[in-house]
Design goal:
The complex is a heterodimer of chains A (about 160) and B (about 140). With about 160 residues, chain A is mainly alpha-helical. Helices cover about 75% and strands about 0% of the residues of chain A. Chain A has a single domain, classed as Orthogonal Bundle (Arp2/3 complex 21 kDa subunit ARPC3), CATH 1.10.1760. With about 140 residues, chain B is α+β, with helices and mostly antiparallel strands. In chain B, a hairpin with a 2-residue loop joins β4 and β5 (about 80-85). The termini of chain B are far apart. Classes of the chains: A mainly alpha (about 160), B alpha+beta (about 140).
């Protein structure tokens, strides 16, 4: 990675941390309680597009770690975030590497698995399987928000100059 | 890595699979939800403190004086075969925003107040899964 690329990667990482904080502060009501747009994940898609799988795989985890260090701490919220991010990252990489899905399919599958990972962690932490009934809502919101994020990212990539040569 | 920015058939396939999973869960939920005599358990700090029934209208009031982990007074309402948290104090009010719930197995978790309201529904499956500790993380 050249210095130029490293700086841009850092900028995108900072942007995603800020966006996740903004979403944490300003609750945008989307479909169901707790469902979020996932603006920070949109930045992750840009990283995947320009930097590839190797750098994308670290991106989400770095974002959650930085957010925890800066403001959310390493409590329950951290474990819920990291589990969602890990599952979403793995799914995104698998879909991007082994299927012909476009940015839309990649985004949707990542968004769904992000929610699923969080619910699994809540079920483990609170020792209840009842939370799994929420999976239906998460899949529906994952499809919608994943599509919206892909739409934003696709139009951004088309309009802005290449950030990586 | 070349990622297409245009929708294709694989994307549609992913959405179809996700939709099938949703349908599967909905069917399973409907299958297990067939009676109006479901028991509602109110958990506070990991213990069942009150039991209500979906077919009996009731308003259960929890005062902060009696339940010190509450952020403020909480009111749980059962009405017309549904249950909701009518009044509560929490940072984002997720539990009251969830509104009325009536499906078996549904839970309304209000972590900041250490309260969980569960419409019991899987007691006859033989699986031992006790809803447990609700942490006060705020």
């Amino acid at each position: 990675m050249t210095t130029k690329m490293m700086v841009r990667y850092g900028f995108l990482l900072a942007l995603s941390v800020i966006l996740s904080y903004v979403e944490y502060l300003v609750e945008i009501p989307i479909l169901f309680p707790g469902a979020k747009l996932g603006l920070a994940n949109a930045v992750g898609l840009i990283v995947l597009y320009y930097f590839g799988i190797k750098y994308f795989s670290m991106f989400g985890i770095l974002r959650v770690l930085l957010s925890a260090i800066l403001w959310t701490g390493f409590g329950i919220n951290f474990f819920i975030s990291i589990s969602g991010t890990l599952l979403a990252t793995i799914m995104t990489i698998l879909v991007a590497k082994y299927t012909k899905a476009s940015i839309y399919g990649i985004s949707i599958s990542g968004a769904i698995l992000h929610g699923l990972g969080q619910v699994i962690m809540v079920a483990i932490l609170y020792q209840t399987l009842y939370m799994l009934t929420y999976v239906v809502f998460l899949i529906i919101s994952g499809i919608i928000t994943g599509y919206l994020m892909a739409l934003i990212v696709a139009s951004l990539i088309c309009r802005m100059p290449k950030i990586v040569n | 890595m070349d990622i297409s920015l245009k929708k294709n058939k694989t994307d549609l396939f992913i959405v179809i699979i996700a939709t099938l999973v949703v349908v599967f869960f909905v069917v399973i939920n409907l299958f297990y939800s067939n009676s109006n005599d479901n028991i509602i358990s109110v958990y506070y700090n990991n213990n069942v403190i009150h039991t209500m029934y979906l077919n009996i209208d009731e308003e259960y009031i929890m005062e902060k004086e009696s339940f010190p982990l509450l952020l403020d007074k909480m009111v749980i309402e059962v009405k017309d075969g549904r249950v909701r948290i009518k009044e509560e104090e929490s940072p984002k009010h997720y539990c009251s925003i969830m509104g009325y719930q009536s499906q078996k197995g549904t839970s309304i978790i209000c972590a900041p107040n250490s309260v969980m309201v569960v419409i019991e529904g899987y007691e006859d499956t033989g699986i031992d899964w006790t809803p447990g500790g609700v942490a006060n993380d705020n």
